[in-house]
Amino acid sequence: MSTLKKFFKDTIIYGVASVLPRAITILLTKLKTSVFEASNYSQDTSFYIYAAYLNVILTFGLETAFFRFFSKEKEKNRVVSTSFLAVLSTVFVFSILSLSFANPISNFLNFSKPIYYKLLVYTLILDTIVVIPYAYLRASNRPIKFAFFKISNVIIYAVLNVFFLWIIPKYNIQLPELFVRYFGEAPQVTYVFFAGVIASLFTFVAMLPIIFKFRFSFDKILLNKMLRYGIPVMIAGVAYITNENLDKILIERFQGKETMGIYAACYKLGVFMTLFITAFRLGAEPFFFNHATHKDAKKNYAAILNWFVITGAIILFVIVAYLPLFAKIILGRPEYYQALQIVPIILLANLFLGIYHNLSVWYKLTDKTKYGMFFSIAGAVITIVLNVIFIPVYGYMASAWITLIAYGSMMLMSYLYSRNHYKIQYNIPKISFYILLSATMAFLSFYKFQQNYIFSTFMLIILLGIVYRKEIIPLSEEMNEKSH
Prior knowledge:
Layout: H1 2-35, H2 38-59, H3 62-72, H4 76-100, H5 102-108, H6 114-129, H7 131-139, H8 143-171, H9 177-183, H10 187-212, H11 220-255, H12 257-267, H13 271-290, H14 297-321, H15 323-330, H16 343-359, H17 361-365, H18 369-394, H19 396-421, H20 428-447, H21 453-483
């Protein structure tokens, strides 16, 4: 039990480090959707979609490979320095090529101004360089320092967003002419991207003392091993970004920028589940690797998935039951409200994705990351083919259901394959019960009793009561028996 306590403690710290920054980013959605029309908000969305793609590609899966090799190699410094120098080399080549061909690449990506792409490149350079230092902090059990860097980054970004989007227009502040001339017209969109560069620059400078402590050496053989492990993870990451974001790109192509902006804004409400999943992954990934040899490892993995599903089921119901209230907090202009019906579907899809991440322990611990690549590619194929077919007919609702189908398929494939490679006795009946219970209650609340908060609260009490009766009481009794 002490092992699980350590896991949950680290997960809480990592949760604060990931949830708080993302929560602040979500709150910025209110500011952005109040200032930007839907068509302009789609431009902001596209910027960060491309950033996500390039960030995954530039690291070659070395972040996940880092955890695997850091946990099993005796020479820890070789793992740290080799992976860092590999990423640094990639960033150097990328920066030279990207900035040399900024204009044609910008046109290809459909950016209205080359400065948008240049700001994207600057942000990516800074963010990619600190990927391994971040991983090092996690692997060496320094969650508080990790949290400090993550939270500081987003606070700087948020403050600059408030300054550029609210304070400047409100008080009619005039920026230096040279500054305005460099960024050109439409400064409100441009300055949001510039804020990201400044926040990333701060993180990079703050992490320099950690980087300078690395004893630099390069092991080509080790790098080849890490790349063989990491490249399938990278491909899976690209496929994941496709599953998560291609629908928005295709909606823009088939339905226009305004529709995409509305869909993307409401999709943000599904991020509450993503916050929980992210916090879990940050704590779970090092835990899975570090405790793989423990005698109770598989039992602990099964227990973790049970509690993950229970917590996710509660989050799903709470967000859906009180969705109009969350929408008022997160969204600005009323034009964005018309796509709220996608939120329950996206939340359930993200819960399936979280379960899939839990199940991924089997192919990561058995060094069979190619399976993760195959599952993600399968999900991406489902996303691409079905969206191309159904978006022109059914619009963004098709994309929401396709996201659910893609993540559900990946989850089922991973579970079925795990039975033959690294069998863990998951409590499937219990997991299925909580998912079905939460989903049924959530959909009933949204489609039959929307804004009837008395009914929603009553249903929430029932759900929590079931969890307390079936989970908390038996767990307390078990702990009391062990203490005696």
